[in-house]
Amino acid sequence: MKILDRYILTTYLKTFLSVFIILMLIFVLQAIWLYISELAGKDLDIDVVFKFLLYVTPTLIPLILPLTILLTSIMVFGNFAENYEFAAMKSTGISLQRAMRSLSVFIIGLSVVTFFFANNAIPWANYNFYNLRKNIAQVKPAMAIAEGQFNEIGNINIKVEEKSGDKGQYLKNVVMHQRKGNRPGNNTVIVAESGELIGNENSNILQLILYNGNYYEEIFTKNPRDFQKKPHAKSSFEKYTLNIDLEALDNVDLEDKSSTDRFNMLNTSDLIKTINGLNEDRTLDLKGFSETLYTRTSISTLNNYLEPKKDTIYNGNIIDLFETKTKIQLLNLALNTTTSTSQIIETKKQSLAVNTKWLNKHIISLHEKYALGFACIILFFVGAPLGALIRKGGIGLPLVIAILLFLTYHFIGIFVKNSSQDGSVNPIFATWLSTLIMLPLSIYLTSRATKDRGLLEFDSYFEPIKKFLKLKPKTLLDAQGNVLNFNVFENFKDDKLIDIIKNYKQYNYDVRSKSVAFNLLVQRGVTIDEIQTQGIVIKAEHNQSDKIAKDSIDYSKYTMIFYCIGVILLVLFLVFRNNKLPELAIASRDLSIISLGIYLLYFIVTNLKIKQFYNTLSIKVKQVSIFLMILGFPFYAITHFFLKNKLKEDLDSSIIENVK
Questions:
Q1: Which pLDDT tens digit goes with each residue over 255-268?
Q2: Is the dihedral of CA 542, 547, 549, 550 positive or negative?
Q3: Which of 227, 412, 416, 568 suits a disulfide with 434, CB 3.0-4.6 Å?
Q4: Three-state DSSP state, 210
């Protein structure tokens, strides 16, 4: 290994390990803070707490490692550029790619190791972490009651809206189902406004005291008529005490590892096998469901028992052939069948949605293992050239840029993966989307850093597009071809501007100076009639083209406004839906559809106006391609500005030809 490669690799590894350890400590502390309620006050042994931290640490690697690579790359290469070490390398003919060679090999090797780590260590950690959390939660039943969902404790299922108190012993809005004897189902329902859990360390009995509620119990009887008369009993209470036997809960084995079927506990081979099994089950389920619905229609036996009379002709409604009583029976039968089938379909739809979500979680978990390794490589090729471009090392600016880039990468991944769980987005595409977004950025930054071009040279960004659209540069040339700054015209008085329109050649200006001078006069409020009184002839074709061009630009402006509103509302719809805010999500979706609909109408009107503009233009210019307009439809926030510049350029050409 050459001295340069060893120096760069050593510098990178030192920074990498420092950043990794610091980020690991930060995220571990954050995890402790997040799960402190599950650890505090449980009288847990120190080895159990140590195992808790040991199991949670590997699960943080998918967050820590990409951020570490991105931040380290920006810091190291920014420090090289800031200390002119890159300048010294380039002076000896060493390019950026050559300087990155040893690190590229290291990052690729790290990505391979990361894949095996994600495939083996992380599932092992998730498996142990989940089981340990489940066992710790059973040490105190109050911790086993999660807010907003039913929780099973002994022979009761309990749901609470909110918990409070230092141990979570005070409950609000309690709904409880209780099983009794060998009877199947939850036959007793208790609803209370509040409750309290009272326990004693020396007792296996937990007291659940409920306040201000109602007690409902289904009455069991062998006579159906009696059940219809008295289906259940109801009573109200101000205080109700229920004793729960905790003997089974107190004998908790913290080493129990019976839960093994979660998607994040499986490696790639297990995930592939599970996904194939789920797909087969889904196919069989859909096939069986379709056969069931087909059988319910009785289509296969519909014509088997009919013997129509060929000599009978009846043109009326077939239902009129039956008596009124029979008509009612037939209609009720059809209505009941339709209602029953609709309920079956709706129930099956909910069941399939749950199965689809479970299947998609497995697919996402599988592809996350592959995407993590590729993300490490791509983020390195984002951070290294970015550090060389910003020429700033240390913690300050690189840390800010790294966090912004990583948050963008991370939150895009979270939002899209959450949206893909219900099947609205392909789960494979959702898993790779954030990485694919960073891929062109890494290529672009590496290209710019290699060519030693600045990060914020906006002219270089728009120059290829201007060349493609053949937009003329806004510069003036004198008779010798030297570039003149047209901003100097703003210092001229109106008389001189009018004289330039008439005699631009005497000033050694190029012909476009006429359009610059004319536009400045119009901006100053000089009317067309006032300009014409100075001996300047303005053809009627130009006035018409000028009016239509202004209308086109105005319509394009409104088009862009409704486009931006629609896109922003669409993004908010996804955010609200993923954060379980259905009312706001529906409102955002509806408003987005309305805005995008108006945007489509304005887009059509804008195109018609542009077509009209070129039809009235008295000179031959290259029109805006309809293909480019269609291509720019989903990106109209950018299309608007190029369209505006194109119309102004063509209108300036009209001024040159029609203003004498």
A1: 444 444 577 788 88
A2: positive
A3: 412
A4: strand
Q: Which of 583, 593, 608, 607 is nearest to 562 (CA)?
A: 593
Q: Are 585 and 422 in contact (CB under 8 A)?
A: no
Neighbouring residues of 20: CB distance < 8 A, sequence distance ≥ 6:
64, 65, 68
Q: pTM for this structure?
A: 0.54
- By the 8 A CB rule, do 632 and 639 touch? yes
Coil, helix or strand for 162? strand
Q: Give the pair of three-digit tokens for residue 235.
A: 């009573």
User: Which residues lie below 8 Å from residue 449, measured CB to CB, with a gap of 6+?
Assistant: 96, 384, 385, 386, 388, 389
Decide: 369 and 118 in contact? Cβ < 8 Å.
Answer: yes
State residue 258 phi and psi, 5-degree precision: -85, -25
Distance, in Å, from the CA atom of 520 to the CA atom of 209, rounded to the nearest integer, reads: 83
Cα 176 versus chain centre, distance? 37
Per-residue pLDDT tens over the stretch 205-217: 667 888 988 888 8
Calpha distance 68→23 (Å, rounded): 8
Which structure tokens are listed for 210?
Answer: 């409920």
**478 φ/ψ angles, rounded to the nearest 5 degrees:** -90, -175
pLDDT digits (tens, 9 = 90+) for 8-56: 888 888 888 988 898 888 888 877 777 766 565 555 667 777 787 888 8
- Examine the pLDDT at 635 and tell me if it is beyond 50: yes
Q: What is the mean pLDDT of residues 508-533?
A: 74
Cβ neighbour number for residue 628 with a 10 Å cutoff: 15
- DSSP labels, 549-617: HHHHHHHHHHHHHHHHHHHHHHHHHHHHHHTT-HHHHHHHHHHHHHHHHHHHHHHHHHHHHHHHHHHH-
Q: Encode 29-49: b = buried (16+ Cβ within 10 Å), e = exposed.
A: eebeeebeebeeeeebeeebe
What percentage of the chain has pLDDT greater than the value 90?
Answer: 0
Side-chain-side CA neighbours of 501 within 13 Å: the count stands at 28
Q: Are 42 and 144 in contact (CB under 8 A)?
A: no
In the structure encoding, which two tokens stand for residue 236, read together? 């109200």
Burial profile 7-16: b = 16 or more Cβ within 10 angstroms, e = fewer: ebbebbeebb
Q: What is the residue type of 328? A: I
Geometric angle at alpha carbon 417, from 411 and 422, rounded to 5° = 140
Give the three-class secondary structure for 194.
Answer: strand
CB 150, CB 157: distance < 8 Å:
yes
Euclidean distance between CA atoms 78 and 395, whole angstroms? 10
Through-space distance between the first and last CA atoms of the chain, rounded to whole angstroms: 73
pLDDT digits (tens, 9 = 90+) for 233-259: 788 888 888 876 655 444 444 444 444
